[in-house]
Structure to design on (737 residues):
């Protein structure tokens, strides 16, 4: 078994150099925890930047840094101050970060930043490739390394590569404003599996791939040449056990052992007995909605003055990206706002906001989580938001209310939180009141459900699910590998053709017998093709069926006087030689295995709902779900499904408290099968697009199936062009002469 290589912008370790002494300590972030089991197994390595510029590491200590990192299974990528400035603070955090969080007004398009981004991604690729063997598995993380999957793929085509995007992927309308959009998408598509926190991000990505690169999307995969790239959503969890354990220890420890922060919190709780604490923790980032949260808190005190001296907002804002001007401006804005609200509302005994602009040790984070009655997490955009999950995990007595922005990825999972729109001030302040007044019983009911989910979908499960899916992509790759119909293979085919007593050939029209034209109406059969099909059909015991998605009028008029059978509109209509068109009726359920997992995640996230599987349809029932949540989820599911199944001959029907995904009943495979009323010892089918896959999968096993082109297929063989198909058909004719 090959090794696993994890790559993220930063290594999961802290390096300190003081007095020419080097100290390396592993960091214990969520990502590091989630990947621990993989990182510790076998000879896995983690590649990334140490956090120190090359210039900050004295030359004589460079080897020691590499060595110490190696002790933690890490390989450092060295970055110069200029690279950090342009790649990290520049393109990553002044272009991708704001754009992907819908802050277009903050997005800078600077060619020299882009150049640095490319160079640094190449630098990472070099370090990776030097340690990479065929059979290894690579997992690349986040928006700083969007080009890396393809850079690795180009040099090592046979390794398995996964990519996970930790931030939102924006709507294609926003994404397409990026001057380097094609390069970014191509970079990501170097991976075999691309993971996102939510379905929405995944669909946005696929739509961008479709619109910008013009690749076809098939459910949740993209076919490029002979490669299949899969996408999926994997909502990242937290290290639930760690937070739970820390909270329990915190609760049980003697007062004397409490931290200073906890002692202060306890003192204030003691002197202002009925004061409730509202917690707010984030990196100081404009995406987190910090300024609006303070404003909303001020408005709350105005609208509900009875809460003066009864509540306190504890704000922890962790310094972040302080080199970027927008973050400096935000810092100023937050400082001023805190000052203004405190100045306006403070009394001799009471300051409404306690503001900390620093990072705190883990134990103090636990103090804050455990001591706050309400957590207010209101980002304007957030890929997931782990703080919200951590707050719930630490509530050992199951009390506490989480107010969560619907713009955070976490809101898709944490339905029992109070979900708000961060731009709706009235809603925020009313929800805050609701949170402060929520009966304990209700708090406990909600938190128990949330905790159960967080415990199950923890960060380890997230990493395992991703790795499992990544390994599975290898299997699909193998399962879909068609073989080129080379002269050697043809020999065997010709023998079977000549020896056959009864033959039937199903031939798709556009892209198989006839190459595409700009306008579809410009593609009638040329005389050469008409002669070819005539002669093929004139052979003894040979039935030729042209099978097309086109309407019966067009295809019928094009083959009017030719003695050939026709199937039109993907199998809706059939015309026997010199007969009239007849309707067919067919059903298929092979799509269920793709759609079912999507429904399952909705069942997981929506208590009280369930799936009913019928012969040819899947139904998601939500009559037992909370009425409001049921409707919200039904809308969401229906949007996801419509996007996913468009062009697959399926439709979504909204019944009474049920969504049903039905086959529209017809496909080329079913229609072709219906014509097999007699026994044939040579069945042949050729086609080029996804509608022909039904032919390949539904015709009897012995059928010789041929895909035209090199996309993902269930066909056994492939030919590269329509010319090659025509050549093969004339060779069939020659065999019998
Ligand atoms: C990105 C995406 C996505 C915070 N302050 C302190 C501290 N923290 C810890 C928290 C939490 C983590 O930092 C923050 O994670 P978030 O998910 O909330 O936010 P981002 O940093 O923006 O992360 C985000 C995430 O990636 C994962 O994919 O969820 O959407 O933006 O774990 O506990 N930890 C300590 N002291 C602090 O002062 N010790």
């Amino acid at each position: 078994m090959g090794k696993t290589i994890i790559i993220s912008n930063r290594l999961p370790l802290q390096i300190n150099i003081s007095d020419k002494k080097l100290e390396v300590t592993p960091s214990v972030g969520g990502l590091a925890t989630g990947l621990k089991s993989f990182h510790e197994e076998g000879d896995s390595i983690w590649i990334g930047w140490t956090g120190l510029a090359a210039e900050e590491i004295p030359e004589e200590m460079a080897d020691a840094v590499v060595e110490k990192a190696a002790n933690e299974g890490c390989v450092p990528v060295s970055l110069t101050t200029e690279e950090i400035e342009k790649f990290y603070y520049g393109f990553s955090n002044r272009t991708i970060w704001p754009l992907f969080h819908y802050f277009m007004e903050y997005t800078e398009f600077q060619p020299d930043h882009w150049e640095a981004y490319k160079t640094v991604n190449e630098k990472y690729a070099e370090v990776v490739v030097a340690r990479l063997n065929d059979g290894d598995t690579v997992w690349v993380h986040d928006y700083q390394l969007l080009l890396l999957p393809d850079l690795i793929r180009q040099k090592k085509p046979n390794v398995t590569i996964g990519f996970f995007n930790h931030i939102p992927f924006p709507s294609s309308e926003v994404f397409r404003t990026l001057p380097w959009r094609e390069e970014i998408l191509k970079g990501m598509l170097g991976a075999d599996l691309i993971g996102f926190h939510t379905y929405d991000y995944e669909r946005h990505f696929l739509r961008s791939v479709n619109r910008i690169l013009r690749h076809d999307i098939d459910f949740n995969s993209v076919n490029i040449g002979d490669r299949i790239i899969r996408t999926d959503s994997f909502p990242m969890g937290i290290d639930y056990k760690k937070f739970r354990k820390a909270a329990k220890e915190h609760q049980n420890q003697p007062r004397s052992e409490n931290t200073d922060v906890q002692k202060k919190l306890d003192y204030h709780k003691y002197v202002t007995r009925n004061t409730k604490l509202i917690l707010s923790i984030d990196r100081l980032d404009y995406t987190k909605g910090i300024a609006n949260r303070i404003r909303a808190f001020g408005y709350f005190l105005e609208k509900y003055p009875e809460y003066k001296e009864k509540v306190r907002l504890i704000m922890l804002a962790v310094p972040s990206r302080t080199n970027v001007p927008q973050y400096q401006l935000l810092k100023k804005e937050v400082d001023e706002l805190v000052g203004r609200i405190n100045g306006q509302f403070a009394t001799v005994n009471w300051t409404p906001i306690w503001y900390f602009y620093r990072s705190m040790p883990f134990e103090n984070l636990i103090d804050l989580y455990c001591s706050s009655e309400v957590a207010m997490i209101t980002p304007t955009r957030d890929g997931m938001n782990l703080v919200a999950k951590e707050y719930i995990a630490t509530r050992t007595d199951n009390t506490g209310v989480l107010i969560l922005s619907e713009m955070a990825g976490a809101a898709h999972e944490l339905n029992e939180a109070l979900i708000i729109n961060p731009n709706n001030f009235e809603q925020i302040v009313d929800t805050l009141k609701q949170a402060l007044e929520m009966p304990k019983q209700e708090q406990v009911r909600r938190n128990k459900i949330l905790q159960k989910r967080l415990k199950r979908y923890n960060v380890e499960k997230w990493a395992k699910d991703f790795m499992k899916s990544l390994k599975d992509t290898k299997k699909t790759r193998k399962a879909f590998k068609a073989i080129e119909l080379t002269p050697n293979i043809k020999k065997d085919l010709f023998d079977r053709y000549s020896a056959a007593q009864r033959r039937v050939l199903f031939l798709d029209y556009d892209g198989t017998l006839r190459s595409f034209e700009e306008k579809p109406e410009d593609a009638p059969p040329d005389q050469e093709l008409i002669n070819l099909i005539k002669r093929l059909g004139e052979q003894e015991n040979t039935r030729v069926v042209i099978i097309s998605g086109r309407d019966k009028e067009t295809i019928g008029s094009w083959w009017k006087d030719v003695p050939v059978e026709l199937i039109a509109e993907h199998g809706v209509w059939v015309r026997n030689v010199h007969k009239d068109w007849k309707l067919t009726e067919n059903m298929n359920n092979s799509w269920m295995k793709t759609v079912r997992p999507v429904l399952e995640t909705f069942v997981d996230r929506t208590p009280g709902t369930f799936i009913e599987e019928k012969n040819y349809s899947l139904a998601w029932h939500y009559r037992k779900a909370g009425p409001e949540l049921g409707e919200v989820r039904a809308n969401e599911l229906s949007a996801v499904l419509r996007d996913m199944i468009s062009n697959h001959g399926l439709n979504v029907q909204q019944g009474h408290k049920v969504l049903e995904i039905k086959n529209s009943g017809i496909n080329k495979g079913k229609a072709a099968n219906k014509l097999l009323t007699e026994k044939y010892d040579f069945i042949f089918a050729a086609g080029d697009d996804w509608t022909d896959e039904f032919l390949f999968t539904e015709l009897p096993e012995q059928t010789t199936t041929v895909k035209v082109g090199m996309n993902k297929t269930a066909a056994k063989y492939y030919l590269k062009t329509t010319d090659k198909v025509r050549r093969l058909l004339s060779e069939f004719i020659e065999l019998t002469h």
